[in-house]
Amino acid sequence: MEISSAYQKNISFLKELKPTADRAKVQAEVSDSFEEIYKKAVDSDIKLDNSKEFLSKLSSDELQVLQQYTSLATPINVAKLSSEGAYNLLMHDYEKFDFNNDGMVQNGEANTGPVIPSGMSDDVKEAYIKTLNSLNDEDRLNAMSLTIDLNIFNSQQNNTAYESTKIDFDYIKTMVDNIIHPLPMATSSDELKDSMKRFWNLFMSNYEAEDKA
User: Fold this and answer.
1) Closest to 201 (Cα-Cα) out of 108, 147, 127
2) d(CA 196, CA 204)
């Protein structure tokens, strides 16, 4: 497996994040089969440079397991995968990573924004993950919208190198304030405002607890 310090550090944080109820249910249906494939991958010392070769030797049933575990909409076509997309298919959710530093996590052919952006400070990561774990799925989704790094889309649109946005306490506070107290010409529904208030109260409690630890 890949062993870079940045990768291992990311795993240490994301391993604490609980899956949503829906995702846990979908993965549970193929959990045993996935773990068998995962063990084979680990035993084969899977890395970015040999992940596609490993996938090419799996049966169609095993590829279907990976498709369901990862919630991919279409069957896996190994030939179309990047090394990052292939490697991440074989990993648990907390082990999926943006190896090429473009701001997106390639998971099979799919590209998704990371749950924890690379520009998020460590003190915020701990409090943020604890807070997400305490929220219902709707509030959790709203909270995750706060940390979408728009620089990802700017780099794609302008064909420039991705530079992560610094997401610290002040950044999140400003984002929440802009929703609860919209700027002129902006609006937020009462439901979204209430959701952000629940997030902020929990986040502040967790952040202050981390600060005192």
Assistant:
1) 127
2) 12
Amino acid present at 133: N
Taking a C-beta distance cutoff of 8 angstroms, is the pair 207, 169 a contact?
yes
CA nearest neighbour of 125 among 9, 8, 4: 9
User: What whole-number distance in Å separates Cα of residue 69 and Cα of residue 64?
Assistant: 9
Instruction: Report how far residue 183's alpha carbon sits from residue 59's, in angstroms, rounded to the nearest whole number.
Output: 55
What does pLDDT average to in each consecutive run of 10 residues of the chain (213 residues)?
Answer: 90 94 94 98 96 97 97 95 97 96 94 90 94 96 92 88 93 96 91 98 94 68
| One-letter amino acid for residue 52 of the chain | K
Place of tokens 């979408």: 148
C-alpha angle 95-23-87 in degrees, rounded to nearest 5: 30
pTM: 0.90
